[in-house]
Amino acid sequence: MSATFATQLDQVTRRWVTGAIRQPWGLGVAIVQPVIWIVLFGNVFQSVGQVPGFGHDDYLSFLVPGILMMTVLYSGAWAGTGFIDDIRSGVMDRMLSSPVSRPALVLGQLVQQLLICVVQGVMVLVIGALAGAHYAGGVLGMAVALGASVLLAAAFCSLSAAVALLARDQTALIGISTIVVLPATFLSTALMPVQLLPDWVATAAKFNPLTWATSIAQTAMSPDVDWGVVATRSAWLVVLATIVAWWSLRAMRSYQRSL
């Protein structure tokens, strides 16, 4: 009797989580990175908070939600490297010759990546607080911000997985990921409020998932939460994550057919 989908998903997730625990340096680097960003950007752009029209009490409190989303964005962009390693080592082919569910193979790795992103998100918020950021939205605001980061991570982890399964090459994955994440970072409101951006950048930012997630976190962690923004941007992220997750499942089937 074959195992249920839930059991298969649990086993695949455990496999990826165990691998991550055995290589803690990856999570360590992912935590050190936002420390550098918070210290670097927080000090370099600190005077931005004094610019007329900035609209926030201090730059650091404005910056932390953006750094939170940038952290999971970059982490998600490299998620497909695990599949590349499996393809190179032959593990993927052996897994596909077993009766394990193909969606479980994809979703198990996604669940593991989202767990890592939650840990990263909590650490970013703690580091930001230690650096002097203020979260007026309290615990609820931080929880909403973490939820938005998970939705953003789900979209980009699935995107990275799809690219990895289709390209099957580490260099190609790195190149494509870089092309995606760098414009996404600077064509967003993660580092600068929309009112201070050039018009063309502000227009592009409206269609940027990083801006959607950052907007959710910024309003959720502010004194006056705009729940309309939270609801609409969350809905957009859910739709995006669902579409890209479907694409990653299609990419897995495409890889299997090519064997």
Automatic annotation (TrEMBL):
One of its GO terms (biological process) is response to antibiotic. The chain crosses the membrane at residues 24-42, 62-84, 105-133, 139-166, 173-192, 230-249. GO terms for cellular component: ATP-binding cassette (ABC) transporter complex. InterPro entries: ABC2_TM, ABC2_TM_bact-type, ABC_2_transport, Nod_factor_ABC_transporter. One of its GO terms (molecular function) is ABC-type transporter activity. It is found in: Cell membrane; Membrane. Residues 25-255 form the ABC transmembrane type-2 domain. Keywords: Antibiotic resistance, Cell membrane, Membrane, Transmembrane, Transmembrane helix, Transport. It is a multi-pass membrane protein. Belongs to the ABC-2 integral membrane protein family. This is Transport permease protein. It comes from Cellulomonas rhizosphaerae.
